[in-house]
Amino acid sequence: MGRDAPPRLLAPADGDAGLVSMDAAAVLFHDAPLAVYLRSEDGTFLEVNKAMAQLFGYDAPEDFLAAMTGVAEQHYLDADIRLGMLADLALAGFVTGRQYQAIGRDGFVLWVEESARRITSPAGELYYFGYLRDVTAEKSTSWALSEAEEKYRAIFEHAVEGLFQMTPTGRFVTVNDALRRMLAFPSAEALTEDPQAALRLFPDPGDHEALLRALESEDVVRGLEVALRRGDGEVIWASIHARAVRDGQGRTVLVEGSMVDVTERRRSQEQLRASLSRTRRLFHETVTALSKTVRFRDPYTAAHQDNVARLAAAMARVMGLSEDAAAGIGVAGQLHDIGKIVVPVRYLCKPGRLVGLEWEFMRQHAQAGYEILKEIDFPWPVAEIVWSHHERLDGTGYPRGIGAADMGVEARILAVADVLDAMASHRPYRPALGVASAFEVLVEGCGTSFDPAAVAAARAVIGEGVVRY
Fold first, then answer.
1. Are 385 and 336 in contact (CB under 8 A)?
2. Hey, is 54 helix, strand or coil?
3. For residue 138, which of 130, 148, 149, 146 has the smallest C-alpha distance?
4. Contacts (Cβ under 8 Å, ≥6 apart) of 297
5. Lowest-pLDDT range, 71-85, 142-156, 175-189, 398-412?
6. Is 71 strand, coil or helix?
């Protein structure tokens, strides 16, 4: 049977009432949405439906059949694929899901999947009945997934950070080579084959529990630093970034993330902390030594400086200043009368009030204190605070007569603390006047001489018993 005489099953109706089923089959063949064909034993296309023609860019089945007649490889991009299909059909009688590249009209290339089987006509002639499916989109998706998987694998294997996936029970599912090296294990399998390898890394089991608790509540953990015991027994510090992978019920089924060895950074931080501690201790020893220069000449001034330092720092905290600012004010309080080293001892210890030139000498101590301290690189403006602790908001103070606009909050605090302690404490020229008398003076000068907020802070500090008189 040639191309002009296909099997009767696919022939159009010829008026015989007994052939209605054949006509129905022909309609199904030609109108099916799937690309369907009938070809002879030698591979020549005998019949194709409209979907087959359109799959390859032809308007009608006749156009497709005409185009295939003059091309040996037909629609196959590779002629060997066509020969292989025919050979398998001849041998096995069927081919299922064979995928290959095909060429359509005007040279466009697509991926198709072909299935076919051998059929025999009532006259005993052999034909191949088959269908094709366009799988170009599926192939593109598959390629994209394969490419993404390959890129992910390359990133995973060559990452500088140690990457991992582990179960909540402490078993590593996957690890990259960077993690293996960081943890000093001979192979990745040495980590993944041990059911509790991840759990054993934590010298403190509480760290592993803390990681899981954090993931349960937050889903993501960033920069959690924990101690880990390597395969060789050495303990290192690692920074862990991880996230929880959950199932449909919200249960954590996997933990994945990265680890970075931060041991050297931790050691550097410890060394820096130790160095800062030594520097801080040396700094305070230097401040104490400076304050002692006055202590040996005037024990009253020395005690006064200690009291003012505690009082002023406490006031700063009450006023909401930072702990660092309070520390700076405390240092300034400790040194605020260091300039009295230039005042003759007979004036410092005089039992009566200073008059005339004696008072002029005493007024120089704020300027002298500034000159002594200005070259020292304090982390706070200590010299400026000491210079201004006898200034007043209305400009009636000394040594420069500056006003509120030029007085920092530190100097305002120190000015109040200085007056309060001077009046509440015993002085060489008079007995202690008491806290109540001191606050009378401070309240009277509120807003003119003294900062109201500083006066209120002083009252709060005294009320709390931070400094007692």
1. yes
2. helix
3. 146
4. 340, 341, 345, 348
5. 142-156
6. coil
Token representation of residue 429:
């020229």
Please give the DSSP secondary-structure letter assigned to residue 76: B
CB atoms within 10 A of CB 132: 23
**How many of the other CB atoms lie within 10 Å of CB of 384?**
18
What span, in angstroms and rounded, lies between the C-alpha atoms of 437 and 433?
6
Q: What does the block give as tokens for 414? A: 């120190």
* pLDDT band at 16; cut points 50, 70, 90: very low
Contact 339, 370 (CB under 8 A): yes
* Residue from 212, 413, 229 nearest 326 by CA: 413
What length does the chain have? 469
Q: Does the pLDDT of residue 291 top 80, yes or no?
A: no
pLDDT digits (tens, 9 = 90+) for 118-157: 999 888 899 999 999 999 888 766 665 655 566 666 666 6
C-beta contacts of 104-111 below 8 A and 24+ residues apart: 104/55, 104/56, 104/57, 104/75, 105/56, 105/57, 105/58, 105/67, 106/57, 108/57, 109/77, 110/55, 110/134, 110/136, 111/135, 111/136, 111/138, 111/139
Of 257, 260, 241, 240, which Cα lies nearest the Cα of 183? 260
| CA distances to 103, 162, 309 from 214, in Å | 57, 20, 44
